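Hi X.,

You mentioned you wanted examples for the new student's onboarding notes, showing what a folding record looks like when two proteins sit in one file. Here is a clean example. The first protein comes first, with its sequence line followed by its structure tokens.
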Amino acid sequence: MFVYNHKQSEWRELAAMKTARAMFGAVVHNGKIVVAGGVNEEGLTAASEVYDFGTNKWETFTDFPQERSSVNLLSNEGALYAVGGFTIIQNDNKEVVPAEVTDVWQYEEDKKEWSGMLREMRYAAGSSCVSLRLNAAKMTKL
């Protein structure tokens, strides 16, 4: 991993992840970087790790329940969530094929485990989260 110092216009190398991977989910959660899933030389992985800025070290984190790539991680008000991604499944013809998954998981800090929240979202559905305060008294009428 590298960090960029914009004041000095230079990159500096930091500790490498324990499991080399691409196409993983990453988020800053409680002041640390959490990564989950991805693809390595052996295929999909469920391995998860957490990076501590203070020690410049990666530590193992609770593995995601399913090997997958392109999982979206987000942190909100101290909670960690994982949404969607791609996995490998066996179809009706017994062929192993990649498949998009649209589930939502939450990491439970006290139990140190991932729990499923939503099994499937509607196809082509979308969502956004914006934090702002509206003053209805100052809004113009439509």
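Then the second protein repeats the pattern, sequence line and then tokens:
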Amino acid sequence: LQVPHYLHKVNINLIIIMIIIIIIIIIIIIIIIIIIIIIIIIIMIIIIIIIIIILIIITIIIK
């Protein structure tokens, strides 16, 4: 009876470890997604600023 019980404990530990690993992976994925979104937003802002600057320069040249 002792061996199955020990095995059962090992199984529970394995399950806990797997759950922790899955949670860590999910957290890492979420962080990566957030970073990507932030980078995209920054790039968009930079592009918009560049477009605005170009427009301003063009209007100045035209005037």
